[in-house]
Amino acid sequence: MINVKELRNIKTYAHYLISLMLLAILGVSFGFSSLMNGVIIGSSGKIAMLIPPTYKSEVRGVFIHDTNFDPSVPNWETITQTCYDYGINTIYAHMISMMRSSRFPTNVAKEQGHFWISSRDHLRELLDAAHAYGIEVHVAAIWGYGTPRYDTFKTQNQYGQVQQWINPTKSYDHVMDILEEMITNYPDIDGFAWDYVRYPGDNMPYDNETRAAFEEWLGEGPITDWTPFYPGGSRYNSDFRPFRCYTVDRVIENSAALLRSYKPDIKITAFIFPFVPTSPIYQKKWIAQDSFLWVKEGWVDNIAPMHYVRGEVIGGSDPLGTLEDYFYWETEHLIKAPEGMKEYLSFQRIYYPGQPQDPVEFASMILKMRELGTDGWIIWHYGGPGDSSPAPDIRDYLSLISMPDVFNMGNIQVQADETQATITWLTSLPATSKIEFSDSPLFTHTWELWSDTYYWKTNYHPGTIIEDLTAKTTHSITLTELTPRTKYYFRVQSQDPSGIATSKVLTFTTP
Q: In 54, 178, 220, 428, which residue has its Cα 20 to 30 A from 240's Cα atom?
């Protein structure tokens, strides 16, 4: 008999294989008119390659919180028009709280005792309004934090005290069911973003279901004395702390596989805790947020550290200097330098209850991140026309930032023979052309020890670079003196005054 978990895996892989077949059949026909995120690898006339996302020269995002969605607000037409008028190209909309509700109709939530808190389908309204302006919509989901409507998903600390935090063991199937229903009913979403994918501290989860799952994971049991596995215990660091990471990692891994099985080009973002300057392992060690592994395994496309000036993160007398420290540690260890292995987006906060950020200070933060070389930024959170949020009017902030037109890059194609390969791609505005390639991986990972914790550090191995500084929309570069029957790793890049668009690392093999 096949259990539910096995059935889900079979279903996921079936969708994945169907997607591959359709892409192989239809891949050649993707045109520039829609910049369909394409890469086509040709070898002796044969087509073979999965479609990656389109890349932007700068992601300009705004987070829209769900607290003021009902009953008559927000006005999505007004909000999306305001975003468009002020240069925003990506909306991250808080549509799901895994602990309690969604802002779109879901039978799964109703069947499992949760609620659709709305009289409107906010997600459908937003998708229709935003796409009319060419703005991407990424559904944001809070995973860990919140007040559950029932005790079903709550976890406990070592003292048996119920915590207002999700139990990853109890809630796993519910989370996957919600995501599957979302991507099935709204296949036109552009991306998905995880928030609060972590624990608040080191003293959970210790409820009975999680204890049983830990015994199975560890291969021991029944455990009668749990004190060695509590914080400070002799087996906490060696055994229970890795298990805590596992409970979070499997959500990230399997949700990515599920979403991509339905929509291979979906963009997945993780809002993460920023690295504590001088220590790259704080996230993994204390809150079980192992973003190193997520980057290494490709479970996320974008990393968005929370660089809040007002609130609980940056602050201080030198916010720009602190921000630069965060940038160094995060890029050095996680994605390896600007334009690194994954897109790096700075998550900025303009509103904290009672502490709105100064617009000039905010503009200086964005300019600093541009100077350092981020792929873009996201603002928390929207306030202004069409919304009743107490957040300040976002227009007062965006009007202080220069907003040159952003270009899209896509439709990457390769035609290879035994000793050379021609790589072509398109941009929506004139931009430069650049290719980096090598017969060995451009990025690798090493298992590094920092203090008492191991982590996967990203390493960059520069390849050969060919560049054409002529601004154009149709790009073509030929690589010569290649070796037959050899796998090559490459990425393409274009630049104009709005920024740099860099593809992920792709591959082709000479025949």
A: 178
Query: Which SS3 state, helix, strand or coil, does residue 461 take?
Result: coil
pTM for this model (two decimals): 0.89
31-51+411-509: what CATH class?
mainly beta
For the chain, the domains span: 31-51+411-509, 58-405
Q: Does domain 58-405 have CATH number 3.20.20.70?
A: no
In the chain, the N- to C-terminal Cα span, in Å, equals 44
Residue 499 near residue 58, CB atoms below 8 Å: yes
Q: For residue 238, how many other CB atoms are within 10 A of its CB?
A: 12
- List alpha helices for 288-382, DSSP H: 291-297, 319-330, 359-372
Interatomic CA distance for residues 463 and 120, integer angstroms: 51
Question: For residues 173 and 397, what is the distance between their CA atoms, to the nearest angstrom?
Answer: 41
CA atoms of 114 and 100, how far apart (whole Å): 6
pLDDT digit string (tens) for 106-132?
Answer: 888 777 766 777 788 999 999 999 999
Q: At what angle do helices 4-26 and 241-262 cross, to 10 degrees?
A: 40
- Classify each residue of 289-319 as buried b or exposed e, where b means 16 or more C-beta atoms within 10 Å of its C-beta: bbbbbbbbeebbbbbbbbbbbbeebbeeeeb
Longest dimension (CA), the chain: 70
